[in-house]
Amino acid sequence: MITLSRRVHFSSGHRYYNANWSEEKNKEVFGSSYSSHGHGHNYILEAQVKGPLDIDTGMVINLTDLDTILKDVSDLLDHKHLNDSVEYFKNITPTTENIAKFCFDKINMQLGKVSKATLHKVRIFEGDDLWADYYGQ
Amino acid sequence: MANKCFITKKYQIRCSHLLNDCNNPGIKTKETSLHGHHMDVLVTFKGPIDEESGLTVSRDFADQVIKNTILNKYDKSCLNDFLAIPTGENLVAAITKDLLSSKLSKQLHQVQLKETNKNFFSGPICNE
Known about the structure:
Distance between the termini of chain B: 12 Å
Distance between the termini of chain A: 21 Å
CATH superfamily of chain B: 6-pyruvoyl tetrahydropterin synthase/QueD
Number of domains of chain A: 1
Radius of gyration of chain B: 16 Å
Number of domains of chain B: 1
Number of helices of chain B: 2
CATH superfamily of chain A: 6-pyruvoyl tetrahydropterin synthase/QueD
Largest interface: A-B, 27 and 21 residues
Oligomer: heterodimer
Number of strands of chain B: 5
Largest sheet of chain A: 5 strands, mixed
CATH class of chain B: Alpha Beta
Strand order of the largest sheet of chain A: 3-1-2-4-5
Number of strands of chain A: 5
CATH class of chain A: Alpha Beta
Structural class of chain B: alpha+beta
CATH topology of chain A: Tetrahydropterin Synthase, Chain A
Radius of gyration of chain A: 16 Å
Order of helices and strands of chain B: EEHEHEE
């Protein structure tokens, strides 16, 4: 079994905020991550797939196929305000964790259609000092 | 555990150490004088994604505990003051032990340490 990791970049705005809470509770829970209008990041989505090595191609997955999936998924988030413009995050706070889960579920849905490789992990870098790893359910 | 996620935060400590003062013939090192490193400390937490906040661990709480437990202790220090043999291995083990006694003990997954561009240490997996 071989694993392959591939990255794609996207830039998004987000706000750590739960609309069911008061402003005070939001400030208390999210602390320095709270802001009234939100803020932005240059995110990195890193997908790690694993699978058998194809003896004809020498590949776990054709990178063209993987790049197409990663672009489709990152385009859902790129240059958007996640809380306001992405339906999934209307009632789910777009934390690093939830973005990792969102991307994992989206990539996982498409991967099986093009490859025998499976999705092992999605890592979302919110910055160079904070990242989330999600391995699926 | 449903929706389990791992969050890693990176911190930095600047430490000096001296290895050849240990009187240990098993230690072969070119590091014959006191010197320092600007190290990255990677702390990984694990747990479910909280449904209301979307967080596995509070960022500010993690920063506060790490600052009080690790940074205030090791940053700008000489590791020989804390460790009989101040190797990267022993440092990552010591930081792990310190955090397992802290308010983040139950959520701690692993501590890793980048001493230089050539040396990287991973501590034990915690709370398996």
